[in-house]
Amino acid sequence: MGAKFRKTQKRIDSIRSTTKITRAMELVAASRIVKAQQRLVRARPYAMRIQQAIRELAGVSEVAAEFPLLKPRDDIRSSGFVVITSDRGLAGSYNSGVIGVAADLIRDARRAGRETRLHVVGKKGLSFFRFRGYPIASHVAGISDTPRFEDAEALGERLVADFVSGGLDEVRIVYTDFQSSARQVATATQLLPIRRQDVEPSPGAIAPLYEFEPEPAAILSLLLPRYVNTVVFACLLESAASEHAARRRAMKAATENGEELVKVYTRIANRDRQAEITGEIMEVVAGAEALRERKEAS
């Protein structure tokens, strides 16, 4: 009986140790959410301003619709997918959600007879797609926690080069949209060609009275690739904030479950201990009764 009690007590100690770790990870993730949100907020004005500049240039440039990055392909034969996952686990359903969206898009593209080219960010996505035999054009690891603009720029330039050269007819980016600390949604958006409604001036908008040097078309040709880099960077920041929020929520649930398990096993240990004490008392009583009967018999 004592061995059973000691086994239960060891299990309680193990759960308490794990709970301390999950609580610490929850606090770390909570602090990183704040930093990720601050980076996201700081990056938004730049993205909005470059989008506004492109709209103003498109409004005065007669050849804006003919730019390669703005011109959709009539026949889509190859599709590129950028999938943003995390480098570490213990984040609940964060990775499975974005991987599921990407896998569905890739499957639909293959059913349509298109060639697919996959660019993966994060070790978890790389492990998933590599294990299942997906051809991976490129992968980046070690940046999902705190992405830098240089990382987005390198990936964006490669995607733009593949699209302009005809290696890709469209590019979609799959990431996790950070809507709030309690809600993150795996989503996909078209990256290339750039959607007209994202950069064209609204109907009836008055073109600004600017004098451009060089010509608006030349400036636009420089801004469009930077816009792609900005969108990639924004998706990386959204995913980073979502990853920290998902990990905080998962670790909070693990901590609460651990505390509940401690209560359950404590009750079991108390019951085993009580049974052990009761057994010892019964043995003492039985021994005393045997001595009494032996004394009476003599």
Helix content: 55-70%
Provide the β-strand percentage band.
5-15%
- The chain-level structural class is alpha/beta
SSE pattern: HEHEHEHEEHH
Low-confidence parts lasting 5 or more residues at pLDDT below 50? none
Specify the number of helices: 6
Note the quaternary state here: single chain
Q: Average pLDDT value?
A: 85
- What number of domains? 2
Question: In a nutshell, what does this entry contain?
Answer:
The protein has 298 residues and is α/β, with parallel strands linked by helices. It is built from 6 helices and 5 strands; from the N terminus they run αβαβαβαββαα.
List key phrases describing it.
alpha/beta; Pyruvate Kinase, Chain: A, domain 1; five-stranded mixed β-sheet; 298 residues; 2 domains
Q: Overview of this structure, please?
A:
With 298 residues, this protein is of the alpha/beta class. It folds into 2 domains: 2-18 and 252-297; 27-249, 3-Layer(aba) Sandwich (Pyruvate Kinase, Chain: A, domain 1). It is built from 6 helices and 5 strands. It has helices at residues 2-60, 94-111, 123-131, 149-164, 196-199, 216-297, and strands spanning 78-84, 115-121, 136-140, 170-180, 183-192. A 5-stranded mixed beta sheet has the order 3-2-1-4-5, with helices on both faces. Helix 2 links the parallel strand 1 and strand 2 (115-121). The longest helix has 82 residues, at 216-297. The chain starts with a helix and ends with a helix. 30% of the residues are buried. The model has no long low-confidence stretch (mean pLDDT 85).
